[in-house]
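Deliverable D2.4 — example input (structure tokens):
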């Protein structure tokens, strides 16, 4: 199943292919960190899936990192939306996507669950991302 989405102004567009055999419902994590709480962050991934991102004007992309600085929230400077988050681990790019940035997906397909990563050390955090985040990520900038 391919899910399309992006930021509000269209500068950041993505196609998210969930792994074969994924259940029809989309499991989404509502992170309780201060950034996600303030932005309504609701994230999903599929370890065997793929994410293709196209950024029209790279000068309008503003990566934001906080805390351990191991994840970058990809913010559109024009409209303020955060459609995806990346984490580079051992030279490999991983990502999660914002369910709120999906287009054409009925809300009834999304199963929302709270998520808290307080107390997780950096090693455990990176290991969790390697296991659970999208591991096939390609970002195309410009054009």
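Example output (designed residues):
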């Amino acid at each position: 199943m391919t899910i399309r989405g992006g930021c509000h102004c269209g500068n950041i567009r993505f196609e998210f292919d969930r792994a074969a055999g994924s259940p029809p419902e989309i499991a989404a994590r509502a992170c309780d960190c201060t950034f996600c709480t303030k932005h309504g962050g609701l994230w999903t991934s599929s370890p065997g899936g793929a994410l293709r991102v196209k950024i029209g004007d790279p000068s309008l992309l503003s990566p934001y990192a906080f805390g351990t600085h191991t994840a970058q929230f990809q913010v559109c400077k024009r409209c303020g939306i955060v459609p995806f988050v990346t984490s580079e681990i051992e030279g490999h790019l991983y990502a999660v996507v914002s369910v709120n940035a999906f287009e054409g997906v009925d809300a009834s397909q999304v199963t929302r669950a709270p998520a808290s990563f307080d107390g997780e050390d950096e090693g455990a955090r990176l290991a969790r991302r390697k296991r659970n985040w999208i591991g096939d990520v390609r970002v195309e900038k410009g054009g």
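Residues 71 and 88 are 8 Å apart (CA to CA).
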